[in-house]
Write a structure and sequence with these properties.
This protein has 152 residues and is mostly helical. It contains 7 helices and no strands. The chain has helices at 10-13, 20-23, 34-39, 47-60, 68-94, 103-123, 128-142. The radius of gyration is 19 Å and the shape is globular.
Length: 152
């Protein structure tokens, strides 16, 4: 695949139904592995560097005319979609679905959740590490008290 591949607006293809994964669907026909394309030619450094590099590639090859807000919308939807895929695999693994699942597939989907969340932080111009530190400090400051039994 050439580096000048551009992405079409999925609303044109899917009758107005927009999915985050469809947002980045290629215009050229044929088999396409989005993740393989994203990571080709990347030199993997630290996790934040890698996430920034992947996001830069997405922005550089994104749908022509897409606004920053449309990219943020797509990333927000992507986090939710990946979380849904993770819970689907978890349900299969636990026997709560019609077909069986496996641990490797569940963990793969969980990795997708983490990756898409980190990409969303970058897309929103936020420092994931700092936000996670602040949130963990807040959670820890609450203590580990069962509030229902606090008075008894």
């Amino acid at each position: 695949m050439s580096d000048d591949t551009r992405w079409e607006d999925p609303r044109d293809t899917f009758g107005g139904q927009v999915s985050a994964k469809d947002y980045f669907r290629p215009q050229e026909p044929g088999p396409f592995d989005y993740l393989e394309w994203l990571v080709q030619d990347l030199s993997f450094g630290s996790l934040p560097e890698t996430i920034r590099a992947v996001n830069a590639k997405v922005r550089a090859h994104g749908r022509q005319g897409a606004t920053d807000q449309e990219l943020r919308d797509a990333m927000a939807m992507c986090v939710v979609e990946e979380a849904g895929e993770f819970i689907g695999e978890y349900r299969r693994l636990r026997g709560f679905a019609r077909r069986a699942g496996n641990r490797e597939q569940m963990l793969s989907e969980l990795a997708d959740v983490v990756i898409s969340a980190l990409m969303a932080f970058d897309t929103f111009g936020a420092d994931a590490h700092a936000a996670i530190q602040v949130k963990l400090a807040k959670i820890i400051s609450r203590g580990y008290v069962n509030k229902e039994n606090q008075n008894g």
